[in-house]
């Protein structure tokens, strides 16, 4: 049993319940034709129910690899990942992933059939109930009018919303999102972050969200795990439950963003007073 | 960037709603007609027929080159007497049998190839060995093994369809994006269900291309085999019709038989495969 991590979520301060997802000392490797590369090294964290947990770090810190391991696509070489106490060793419908690429929606199914697909494929529901649930979640993301359209006729933001509706309709134990808004334009991205937070207010799902944007991490998450690259190791865990989309540009927000930037890029505190980084202008990567 | 001259004035426009400007216009009738593929292709066919008639009249030798009109008359005669239609039916029945068996075997081989390493090696070795082998070269062997019945024709047909279709289907399966595969595995699809629900629809453009190629090989192999093979139990197919009429020097009937071969090819390509593409890969935006 792990010792409780510092900075536990505020939503359940008297947490006696078991963590929903526990990643325990996990090291991940991947093979290239020439070598075996270590992507993450002894990473540990725990996610509680209804957390919005963010994995944040620059390129090469293994955050997407960690998400795929949590989903069951990759086996850890060291350590283990447990979902509600059960070891994760294969992909399954209780951990639905929302991917980044636009082609995650099968183009041969209409929007409604796409949202029904996990329910039918995993034999969770019969056709009628699956259809009712699909329409319900399509309304939540505002796409009820496009239920019979094919994905190739939709815009990028609409496709992302269909992917989110598809994931939520399955009512998984944990929702895994791998930089889902990175390929969208900035305006749509803002809108999608807002909609995701509103959906969370309503449904209270548990979220594991991967991003490379400090701003997105502070807005979307309530706990942020910072990973340093080559190989990925846990640098810090930071609170962000006090921030939402309206905090952008605020003093506390800026301070947290600077602190995260410092933690990730290890600049000494003496240098920091010289440069005033204003985070409404500067991005690490977009 | 000069700061000496004053910058241009800012302005705002009040935009009234556009009431009378049509935001969509229909294309003129001529352009819309020209968009229809069959009209354009029909014009090409008519042009070719006129050219043929002109050359035949210039040659003036019925035996060597009957004209378009003579061929059309022979065709009409053959159709009216029911002889041509009967022979076409015999050919098509054999073709469909061989084609379907070829499809089933191709899918079995490809499914094996995507699931196991051995299957992959088997597929690549077998296709590289047998794909270059013309099916008609196997006909004497088939006659030895299966005798003078339909089965030897079906054997040869299966060979002509199987390798091209298996190659295309396998290439299509390999081209399915990693994200779609992960999504399928995410929802708990494995094995046969994974192939059926994710791989086959995602690879459908390649599969359709393989089906078209397989059909073309099968049709030409069948006609060629029937030319060589002759009649079984007194009823031959279209190839036999062409062969018999060549022997009796009815060149216009030969041309009529060839025209039927071409017409069936055109019909299947444009009617069957095009419609199939229209309701599947074109509707889904997977192919232009």
Structure write-up:
- The complex is a heterodimer of chains A (286) and B (288).
- Chain A has a 6-stranded mixed β-sheet with strand order 6-7-8-3-9-10, sandwiched between helices.
- Mean pLDDT of chain A is 86; it is low at 1-10 and 270-274.
- Helix content of chain A is 32%, strand content 22%.
- Chain A has helices at 63-71, 111-121, 127-140, 156-169, 186-203, 214-220, 251-265, 269-272, and strands at 21-31, 36-47, 52-56, 78-83, 86-87, 95-98, 174-178, 207-211, 223-228, 233-239.
- In chain A, helix 2 (111-121) crosses helix 3, helix 2 (111-121) runs parallel beside helix 4 (156-169) and helix 3 crosses helix 4 (156-169).
- The radius of gyration of chain A is 19 Å and the shape is globular.
- By secondary structure, chain A is α/β, with parallel strands linked by helices.
- Chain B has 288 residues and is mostly helical.
- Chain B is built from 12 helices and no strands.
- Chain B is flat and about 95 Å long.
- The model of chain B has no long low-confidence stretch (mean pLDDT 88).
- Classes of the chains: A alpha/beta (286), B mainly alpha (288).
- The interface between A and B is medium-sized, with 25 and 22 residues.
Summarize the topology:
The complex is a heterodimer of chains A (286) and B (288).
Chain A: E1 21-31, E2 36-47, E3 52-56, H1 63-71, E4 78-83, E5 86-87, E6 95-98, H2 111-121, H3 127-140, H4 156-169, E7 174-178, H5 186-203, E8 207-211, H6 214-220, E9 223-228, E10 233-239, H7 251-265, H8 269-272
Parallel strand pairs in A: 3-8, 3-9, 6-7, 7-8
Antiparallel strand pairs in A: 1-2, 1-4, 4-5, 9-10
Chain B: H1 29-35, H2 37-59, H3 68-81, H4 83-115, H5 117-130, H6 139-146, H7 150-174, H8 178-186, H9 191-202, H10 204-229, H11 238-247, H12 251-282
Helix pairs in contact in B: 3-12, 4-5, 4-7, 4-10, 4-11, 5-7, 6-7, 7-10, 8-9, 10-11, 10-12, 11-12
- In N-to-C order, the SSE pattern of chain B is HHHHHHHHHHHH
Unreliable sequence segments of chain B: none
Number of helices of chain B: 12
How would you classify the quaternary structure? heterodimer
Please give the largest β-sheet of chain A: 6 strands, mixed
Instruction: Identify the overall geometry of chain A.
Output: globular
Largest sheet of chain B: none
Helix percent of chain A reads 25-40%
Q: What is the tally of beta strands of chain B?
A: 0
Topology pattern of chain A, helix = H, strand = E: EEEHEEEHHHEHEHEEHH
**Helical/strand content category of chain B:** mainly alpha
Shape of chain B: flat
Our estimate of the beta-strand percent of chain A is 15-25%
Distance N to C terminus of chain B: 47 Å
